[in-house]
Q: What sequence folds into this?
DNA sequence: CAATCATGTAATATCGTTAGTTACATGAGA
DNA sequence: TCTCATGTAACTAACGATATTACATGATTG
């Protein structure tokens, strides 16, 4: 099944914005993400409504982060996107009359509810600041690898 | 996103089959599930290949359960269906060059992997026998409700 | 104030996946 | 041999995420 990549996409955008002091245009973000500017605006509208980012029109306009990265969790972002459904698997009928199907739904619902609770809790424990730190670490690692390659080549 | 309802559907079918001693035709199952016989056969083919059910052609043919209900977990069924993807949310790129996206993917993967592990473990702890028992209990409850209604009406 | 830049948003197209249908082949049993 | 039932391929329909186009709105600059 085709997956919803908005959460992944929005996080990518936000971290790129965090690297920039100036507002970033939808056009620039779209280029970095290899997509269309309208897609960016659509993804960001929820975040704006929830006060995570601000958008400015006209010259020098674009998108800015408003809150501290350490104060934004992945779960916050997920909710700002409108809590898209997490699972690709579901029940055939919502409130079936068939008692067999009721028993099936009850069992599946319990398992999926547990998994959803765990997932949301995990997302709640990761902040954008942590992601940014991880990115910085990867950047350092890459630099070190390059340095090694240079040494070995000489 | 549209959800994959095959797991729910197969479980429904299997429990209905458990109530019947004779083989059940795809046509009969399709009627109970309000769908098409071909859809049933398609869903069941994986289960047959994994030895959970048997299919017989010709007069008196149809589908039979092979194993004990207590020996089949919901996870077994899930795997027999070919482990369809569980989540409706995913990463934009599989192995991105962008370090920002790598950091995002790593964080999301960890959360989703944990949730998947929990979900599969939960599914592994529920057997078809348990579902069948739950169904029988619901049946008893319904009978009791009806009996009460009759008493109150008299 | 006019030109330009950027967002806001509706309408539409595209693409992939699941579900449903039709058609026909195969095999078992009466 | 006729009928019943599965096995399977091919096609259609429906749905949702993503992409694109078009145009309106508002801010900045000269």
A:
């Amino acid at each position: 099944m085709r997956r919803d990549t908005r959460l992944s996409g929005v996080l990518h955008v936000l971290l790129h914005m965090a690297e920039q002091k100036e507002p970033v245009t939808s056009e620039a973000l779209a280029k970095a993400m290899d997509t269309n500017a309208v897609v960016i605006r659509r993804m960001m509208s929820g975040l704006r409504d929830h006060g995570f980012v601000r958008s400015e029109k006209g010259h020098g306009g674009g998108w800015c982060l408003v809150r501290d990265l350490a104060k934004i969790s992945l779960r916050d972002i997920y909710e700002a996107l409108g809590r898209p459904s997490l699972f690709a698997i579901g029940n055939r009928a919502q409130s079936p009359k068939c008692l067999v199907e009721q028993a099936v739904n009850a069992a599946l619902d319990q398992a999926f509810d547990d998994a959803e609770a765990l997932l949301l809790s995990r997302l709640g424990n990761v902040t954008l600041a942590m992601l940014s730190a991880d990115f910085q670490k990867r950047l350092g690692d890459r630099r070190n690898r390059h340095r090694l390659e240079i040494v070995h080549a000489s």
The longest strand of chain A covers residues 53-56. Chain A has a mean pLDDT of 92.
